[in-house]
Specification:
137 residues, alpha+beta, Beta Polymerase, domain 2, 2 domains, two-stranded antiparallel sheet, elongated
Length: 137
């Protein structure tokens, strides 16, 4: 009796190519393959929390980078034009073209820096300018 109730009330929904349930398919499925699924209704409302940011912001690390950028600007004010942080927590130092080698030597050789690798330098070509290339590092 129980298996006939299961077959009657818990028939799996099998769709044909037109989206309708095939009655012939119900008869060919043994009762041992029919599964009952229970869902539990909840009365608690789920808060609409904002999605977690993919980029984690470490405030202490960000402040350290900003302080270091200002330190570089104080040590080489002739070449550093602007210091800023990006949205991905990277320090950007905008340097006058005459000071690129001086800044790179400072970052490599100064005791408070001692960088050993260079990640990215970008050159921007502006054909209408007298000095066409703007190097961004």
């Amino acid at each position: 009796m129980a298996s006939s109730l299961i077959r009657h009330f818990a028939r799996p929904i099998l769709a044909t190519s037109k989206g309708f349930v095939s009655a012939a398919a119900h008869r060919n499925i043994p009762a041992s393959l029919v599964f009952l699924y229970r869902t539990q209704a909840t009365t608690e409302s789920t808060p609409n929390a904002p999605a977690a940011s993919l980029i984690r912001v470490n405030a202490e690390q960000r402040k350290t980078l900003v302080d270091f950028g200002h330190y570089v600007a104080e040590c080489l004010p002739r070449f550093v034009q602007h210091v800023q942080m990006t949205s991905t927590n990277e320090l950007e130092i905008l340097v006058h073209p005459d000071g690129i080698f001086s800044i790179m030597a400072f970052l490599k050789d100064h005791t408070n820096a001692q960088f050993s690798s260079l990640a990215d330098i970008t050159a921007i070509d502006v054909p209408t300018r007298t000095y066409r290339f703007e190097v961004d590092g």
